[in-house]
């Protein structure tokens, strides 16, 4: 064939399809976004209703436990989901996760006391962990390198509608009806999502079972027990709590050494740094985020709806930041990591000023817009870097490690906040001082991530 013929053939060859809604990707995209939208709605709605729910169950001293219970169980779900996906493909993990998540909503919504409420939240966390890993693996199997930045950007954008309506609906239900409906109204929509996602799951190529045993979930369970024990030790505020503190620390460190890539604690360049950054980022952001409604309701007298509005605005910033990373040059992704961590640090420091009476409550709206933008820049970028650095056979394990560090970092940092609020409930600190200490501590953590961001570079793995 001549050069001219080659050229003519190249000119007539159709360009590659870069649409997430093309025939080959439509069902998968709709199904994935539907699932993520429901999880996002639950997160936004529950965070808004939490101060009222905890007060109704007489559990202010245990304010951090519903968040920690969700997160520590999420660790087990993430690890089990990663193993199931590597062994059998993502279908089983996704379906089981949605069923367990729904059961947790029902238990939490019907809880007669704080213990049952925390248990329901833990069941939700287990289901959520199974779901999120399955979503990651579906993305890896369905979308190529050109489309992955866009689907991750779309996942972040899927938080926009829940962020707009979640706090408003949750606040209205909480103020005018009951906080229980925030949990009990979601299961019917999960059934609808399941019906919509089934065609996408059937379209996946067969995934023969490797026959490998599921063993790492036991290690994840040890890590979860370690985190819970650490928070229990801090909650007791007594010198006898030193023993459970040491036990929890030993359990957690021993488990994480087997669950995370070597060098994660030292933030070693490449994959270990990417995994470590996910934990640092999630911890810094969600530790402050969890207490934003409490800050505005208890210190500034805001109602449930207005106290939850910063979460809505933060998610809008998250979507905008994600759009930027999805449509810009991807060659220097560590720069997004540095900028995003910086934004989160600024937002946390600004929130610390909300603990002073001189600062008006509306400043929280601006602060969380900036913090959300930082998350939008970094979270999808870290997800892309994990896929870049992972051989195909290790995508499930490495995606699992990313989520593990995410939820462990969140659980530990939210736990720190819970200990501070418990100290305030026991009159050892004032509530403004407790919340200020949380915000400043997380700002320092985020600033550390910005300084170390250059380590989010490594060698790409293509097979």
**Strand runs, count:** 0
**Helical residue percent band:** over 70%
Unreliable parts: 1-15, 459-463
How would you state the average pLDDT, rounded?
77
Shape: globular
Radius of gyration: 22 Å
- What is the ordering of alpha helices and beta strands? HHHHHHHHHHHHHHHHHH
Main β-sheet description: none
For this entry, what is the oligomeric state of its chains?
single chain
Summed up, the helix count is 18
Strand % is under 5%
How far the N terminus sits from the C terminus, by CA atoms, comes to 33 Å
- Summing up helix and strand content along with how strands pair, one would put the structural category as mainly alpha
What does this structure look like?
By secondary structure, the protein is mainly α. Helices cover 76% and strands 0% of the residues. It has 18 helices and no strands. The longest helix has 31 residues. The radius of gyration is 22 Å and the shape is globular. The N terminus and C terminus are likely disordered.
